[in-house]
Amino acid sequence: MSASPRTARGVETRRKLLAAAERVFADHGYHEASVSRITDRAGVGQGTFYLYFDTKLDIFNELVEDLNHRVRQAMSEGARGATSRLEAERAGFAAFFRFTAEHPALYRVVREAELVSPDALRLHYTRIVEGYIDGLRDAAEDGEIGDIDPTVAAWALMGIGEMIGMRWVLWGDPDAAPGDDADPTASGTREVPPHVLDEMMRFIGGALGRPELAGDRRDGAPEKEES
Amino acid sequence: MSASPRTARGVETRRKLLAAAERVFADHGYHEASVSRITDRAGVGQGTFYLYFDTKLDIFNELVEDLNHRVRQAMSEGARGATSRLEAERAGFAAFFRFTAEHPALYRVVREAELVSPDALRLHYTRIVEGYIDGLRDAAEDGEIGDIDPTVAAWALMGIGEMIGMRWVLWGDPDAAPGDDADPTASGTREVPPHVLDEMMRFIGGALGRPELAGDRRDGAPEKEES
Amino acid sequence: MSASPRTARGVETRRKLLAAAERVFADHGYHEASVSRITDRAGVGQGTFYLYFDTKLDIFNELVEDLNHRVRQAMSEGARGATSRLEAERAGFAAFFRFTAEHPALYRVVREAELVSPDALRLHYTRIVEGYIDGLRDAAEDGEIGDIDPTVAAWALMGIGEMIGMRWVLWGDPDAAPGDDADPTASGTREVPPHVLDEMMRFIGGALGRPELAGDRRDGAPEKEES
Amino acid sequence: MSASPRTARGVETRRKLLAAAERVFADHGYHEASVSRITDRAGVGQGTFYLYFDTKLDIFNELVEDLNHRVRQAMSEGARGATSRLEAERAGFAAFFRFTAEHPALYRVVREAELVSPDALRLHYTRIVEGYIDGLRDAAEDGEIGDIDPTVAAWALMGIGEMIGMRWVLWGDPDAAPGDDADPTASGTREVPPHVLDEMMRFIGGALGRPELAGDRRDGAPEKEES
DNA sequence: AATGAATGAGTGTTCATTCAT
DNA sequence: TATGAATGAACACTCATTCAT
Fold this sequence. Notes:
The structure is a homotetramer. By secondary structure, chain A is mainly alpha-helical.
């Protein structure tokens, strides 16, 4: 039923719908977001929506796909120029957290995807993880990290990033009691504090078999302090 | 409006409703789960629901709370008897994965809670993390692990468990292509393969500054030290 | 199904239910008043209600009946001892307004009765009007008032009392703009200002053919009309 | 959410809904009138209602407003051409009773408004009363009536009209016992008998200080007016 | 290409009433 | 006499989707 736009005007309308949908999904989640809210924000008639998308799920999936591209691009751009795997990892995480802070939609939309469109979620995570796996494999070949299983490690890294991002970016102030910040749209602009990022990288560095590369205060580390 | 049951019959009805709700939420998620589906499955009239719960959100929150208790109990029971922090960690994760496999509701309900009842989600994660933090602090005092920041580490562990659990328990077969397993109710009985658990623990062991305790094949650790 | 109470305890319970119903109907109106609210306020179980009343409409009708008795008693007590019809009228109205101020339920319940139980409403008004008619007839025989049709006059008096009561007792401050006092339960304690009562009685005095008896400032009419 | 119709079709649909609502509210009152009954009678889908009205209360308020305009227009049209205040009053009342007979909804809807939408009720009465007040003030300046307080008199007139209208128009036959006419839809076509209108106007004429202008059989007025 | 109108199945929730104890 | 449990029909309202223009 829906079709690709054939005119410049159509292309523009489709774009407006996607942009509006990102805002609306981010603000309200999938279920509370109504097609009419999307078309309202896009400034088009309700029927116009179905010119470009078959269903509400359709535009949602496209949006998840799009966010996936953008976050991966942000991460690899962030990591570009890093001179070691861990440096790349750190830069990638930093980019990921920055992206999350700027687009809290990512978290919300993606996590909601689990129930709404499980395939979209799997694809999203899988693609990011694949990037990790490749990087880890290269680093292992170069002896840069230990011989940890890259698949398991990649999923673990994914989980760390997700949870730290949720905790420090989405929730914000560590001391905020639950309930202090109930408005989900209000909390999307925090940063991961530097020491948290440091500790997280030390954690990851150790995990990957190169504690000394992550900077350290680690007990059994031969040269560095304590000695 | 809702009240606690005052008779045995009422207690039983309330229990049936909670059990039904767990099933229905797990199968369909919060939004697709309708009160009438819950009451149907519980075998009671629709109005009966409101004798014991004020709103649909109410029973959802109670369920999240309940699941939180149960998973934490499962984890600490699993970890009981461990002789080291890492052993406890491993046993705790194993218990967590087992619980997840038996109650896929946990994942689905909890993750959806983010949009439906953010406080419930935060409380859930925070409580589990607090358990981690205590354990890590004790272990650090005993010199069992490195001096990693316990809060950051705890959230990282939480994320690892979540993601590994999602990947290997909920999704099941690593090679299953997305789309092969779209029915969310069909995939709740997998186990985390032993080697994945092993690798995960090596990852965590390294992260916590005691790679050698986690068992290893690590490059830079020729024949364990510590001897 | 319902029965008269056979024990002192039952009499008491029935009384509690009626008292609770008056409060609840007054506060919420017929439709918003639920049986459970009534039983809650009465401090009895929900089922107990149906021991004494067949339906919600039943207790409502009984309440209207009861209020009717009470307001008529208040009015005739107020009027007792008056030495002329107009004095009696004034005292009766004053009593009526006082009763209204103390029991705003009267107005609300009675007016709602029009749709809920039209018979109850008619009976209520008719009974009060019959009292007026009798009084007017007597007064006419005594030459105390003009020979106005007592039935029409009685209904007119009823209407005047109702409207003045609504305007000055229920609504309160004459200058309050609509909306300033939207809470219907908050405005039941006003009084009809003395000059309003005075003017009203002058109006009625003239209507009944005895302007001079009502006190007057009437234009050029030292002793009746114009001549 | 609701919007003004943008096409002729929409205008027509909205009109049908209002007309249906007037019938349904008049027949059943606010609470028994369900949106689905309204849409059924209008011959549109249930959802269509919410295209033009936000809530059931919304259309109710609009209806009260509309009825207020119409009754005031009917009254001033009825009074147009009267050569004295009392003549105008009589014509106005006659128009009011005629309108009531043709639109019994007025009474029912407006009286129920007291509980449903108190502001609407106050506005309704206040607007009519303001018309009375203006007329009375003019008449007083012209010496046409006594110097009665116009505000109090206006509310009194409002009450008289309401009550006489209820008694003779809505209830119909004076001798009908309560219960004979329980169907509220069946009684909307009566007229106020001429002698009742006559007596009512004599009552009012006396009240306003000009008994002789209202026609009379008054004791102290041996051979009619003015001569 | 665009749109406003229309729909009807579906939602969470309420409540007068019945009944077993 | 008293009650808490249970019910199911009913309600106001929402929304993804279709369609005529």
